[in-house]
TrEMBL record:
Record's protein name: Glutathione S-transferase
Signal peptide start and end residues: none
UniProt key word NADP: no
Annotated coiled-coil segments of the chain: none
A Pfam family recorded for this sequence: GST_N_2
Origin superkingdom: Bacteria
GO molecular function terms noted in the UniProt entry: transferase activity
Transmembrane annotation, as ranges: none
Length: 201
């Protein structure tokens, strides 16, 4: 199988971390593609009509896309327990929260990179950051006991989301007022799978 991805994509990083945590690198080849909202790579468009990465080209059956679909597939394929039935709804909710942080942070990045300066909206950027910051606060206040439990997809997603903010929006200082989450993230980032998928600044 092949994973169409970009190292800088936090959504792709989720999948890449799962590949390593589930020992699937011999089964799935990572294919680096260059694509953007205004210039979609042809291979990406063929795999995902929405033109987004990651997308997983399977040996049998159509390509699948959206990181949450891919990680569920990889979890089932490897027989891992990143989506444990005993706390499935909590894991899915935490993953969705992390994905929302990624979406808001990525929107901020695109606003600066894809739109001319005269057309950029600081109010819109701040509204995106407010979503991300509110979600970070909620994780710090409500989810720390879950983050400290056995490895699951919610933890991987949160780590990737916060790492993306470090990469693109470090000046926002998300750690301020979130000491417990910051300490957890520092420890989680030392995992081999996270170190192997670090994006050069």
């Amino acid at each position: 199988m092949k994973l169409l991805m970009s190292p800088a994509s936090p959504f792709a990083r989720k999948c890449r971390v799962v590949l390593r945590e589930a020992d699937l690198l011999d089964t799935v080849e990572e294919v680096n593609v260059s694509t953007s909202p205004t210039a979609t790579d042809a291979a990406v468009a063929a795999a995902n009509p929405l033109g987004k990465i990651p997308a997983l080209l399977r040996d049998h059956g159509p390509a699948i896309y959206d990181s949450r679909v891919i990680t569920r597939f990889l979890n089932d394929h490897a027989g891992t327990a990143f989506y444990p039935q005993t706390r499935l709804w909590e894991v899915l909710t935490l993953e969705a929260t992390a994905d929302g942080i990624m979406e808001a942070a990525l929107a901020m990045t695109y606003e600066a990179r894809m739109r001319p300066a005269a057309q950029q909206s600081s109010d819109w950027v701040e509204a995106q950051w407010a979503k991300a910051h509110r979600a970070i606060g909620a994780i710090d206040a409500r989810w720390m006991s879950h983050l400290s439990g056995p490895l699951d997809m919610g933890q991987i997603a949160v780590a990737c989301a916060l790492a993306y903010i470090d990469l693109r929006h470090d000046a926002r200082g998300w750690r301020d007022g979130h000491a417990d989450l910051a300490a957890w993230h520092r420890t989680f980032m030392a995992r081999d799978a996270m170190l192997a998928t670090v994006v050069p600044a």
